């Protein structure tokens, strides 16, 4: 498949791109808080966070103003702002409240993992026997299932697991590149639905006959605590907050720089144990920054919640959301050669969603667990807290903790999914 040379974006200077993204974010939140009836009604159906995600994608295509692949802003946001956000969002965590959430959160996460493991072979069966004409002519079934194994790695674990599947099943660079496009587009479309679902969670909970009391209790406890310590911050207090946030970033990078090479030196052992995720620098960034925030939540640093820890953490998350949106290439959806692969991806995601909803209905789990359980699998640590904070910023830490579980299970789940897909392709 010949690659057409892409036109350069209108703005390539990241200082300009950042200013443009910040203007878009400010405009969205200004309109949401304007108090005008039209915008109140509009944001009832279209959550602000969803716009923070999709408007930057429109800036990429069809407008051609920016390009996330050219810009370094996603790297900066995911490596600097995300660890800072994780540290700040975990500062005010209420462990007692989280423990009261019970086993439903874990059950929904595992249901999401099961949906991805089963969805792979099911989607391959559908495309092979129902829509065989949609399989690109230059991709064999053997290449297809191997390429799909990298999506399984990404959707259950993350980038490290995805790369591990590429190596394990000897996926060619060309197929790997196409599968990354399918992975990103389908996962981002689903994330858009989850952000919308957060806005209609009461209706969703009613349909699921869900018991939402534990989540409401956690939200109230967090909000009551925030109200009890809230004050107008001084300059010193603001600098203290930033020192904690970016001190957490510094510790996370320092730890990752030390641990990742050590893990790399034992790569063969880790591969034999299917623990390649432990060699990922990003994995340790997430783990360490989250741990710093959790440990500080037991100290007086928790009172920094009163001067805006969650608010600043949320701002960093919104900037990350915008940079993620800027990387999404909506144009790829309309590429003729990729239609069949998107049918596979969408069918796969549909199986994942159906299993989640059936499980939620059976155990009366609230839609929050559906959304976060799904995104902790599909999106990982970069986007699970985004979806969780769409329900309430105080719940972001729940998304972080569930996403870490995804890293642990990623390679095992992807390997099992790949074995099932190979059976379908060979059979």
Describe the structure.
The protein has helices at 14-32, 37-45, 48-60, 73-91, 95-99, 104-129, 141-156, 159-168, 173-199, 201-208, 213-229, 235-264, 267-272, 281-296, 309-327, 339-363, 367-378, 384-391, 396-426. With 427 residues, it is mainly alpha-helical. The two termini are 27 Å apart. The relative contact order is 0.20. The mean pLDDT is 87.
What shape does the CA trace take?
Answer: globular
* Rg computed from alpha carbons, rounded to a whole number of angstroms: 21 Å
Helix content: over 70%
Structural class: mainly alpha
Mean residue pLDDT: 87
> Helix segment count?
19
Portion in strands: under 5%
List the helices and strands and how they pair.
Elements lengths: L13 H19 L4 H9 L2 H13 L12 H19 L3 H5 L4 H26 L11 H16 L2 H10 L4 H27 L1 H8 L4 H17 L5 H30 L2 H6 L8 H16 L12 H19 L11 H25 L3 H12 L5 H8 L4 H31 L1
Helix pairs in contact: 1-3, 3-15, 4-12, 4-14, 4-15, 6-7, 6-16, 6-17, 6-19, 7-8, 7-9, 7-19, 8-19, 9-16, 9-17, 12-14, 14-19, 16-17, 17-18, 17-19, 18-19
């Amino acid at each position: 498949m010949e690659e057409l040379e892409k036109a350069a974006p209108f703005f390539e200077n990241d200082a300009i791109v950042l200013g443009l993204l910040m203007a878009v974010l400010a405009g969205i939140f200004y309109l949401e808080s304007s108090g005008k009836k039209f915008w109140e009604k509009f944001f009832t159906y279209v959550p602000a966070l969803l716009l923070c995600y999709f408007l930057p994608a429109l800036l990429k295509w069809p407008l051609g103003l920016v390009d996330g692949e050219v810009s370094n802003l996603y790297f900066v946001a995911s490596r600097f702002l995300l660890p800072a956000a994780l540290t700040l969002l975990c500062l005010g965590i209420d462990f007692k409240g989280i423990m009261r959430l019970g086993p439903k959160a874990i059950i929904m996460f595992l249901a999401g993992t099961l949906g991805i493991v089963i969805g792979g072979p099911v989607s391959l069966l559908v495309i092979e026997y129902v829509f065989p004409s949609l399989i690109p002519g230059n991709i064999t079934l053997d290449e297809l299932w191997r390429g799909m194994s990298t999506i399984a790695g990404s959707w259950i674990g993350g980038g490290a697991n995805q790369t591990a599947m590429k190596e394990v099943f000897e996926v060619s660079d060309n197929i790997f590149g196409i599968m990354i496009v399918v992975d990103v587009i389908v996962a981002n479309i689903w994330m858009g639905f989850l952000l919308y679902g957060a806005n209609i969670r009461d209706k969703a909970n009613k349909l699921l006959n869900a018991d939402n009391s534990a989540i409401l209790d956690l939200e109230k406890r967090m909000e009551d605590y925030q109200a009890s310590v809230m004050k107008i911050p001084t300059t010193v207090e603001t600098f203290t907050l930033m020192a904690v946030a970016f001190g957490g970033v510094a510790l996370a990078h320092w730890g990752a720089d030390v641990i990742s090479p050590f893990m790399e030196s034992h790569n063969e052992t880790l591969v034999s144990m299917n623990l390649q995720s432990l060699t990922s620098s990003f994995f340790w960034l997430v783990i360490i920054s989250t741990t710093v925030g959790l440990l500080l939540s037991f100290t007086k640093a928790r009172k920094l919640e009163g001067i805006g820890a969650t608010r600043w953490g949320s701002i960093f998350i919104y900037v990350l959301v915008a940079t993620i949106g800027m990387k999404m290439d909506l144009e790829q959806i309309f590429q003729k050669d990729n239609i069949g692969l998107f049918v596979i991806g969408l069918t796969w995601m549909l199986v994942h969603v159906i299993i989640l909803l059936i499980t939620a209905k059976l155990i009366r789990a609230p839609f929050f667990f559906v959304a976060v359980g799904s995104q902790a699998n599909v999106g990982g640590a970069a986007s699970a807290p985004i979806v969780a904070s769409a329900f309430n910023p105080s719940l972001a830490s729940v998304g972080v903790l569930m996403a870490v579980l995804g890293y642990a299970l990623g390679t095992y789940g992807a390997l099992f999914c790949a074995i099932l897909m190979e059976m379908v392709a060979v059979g």
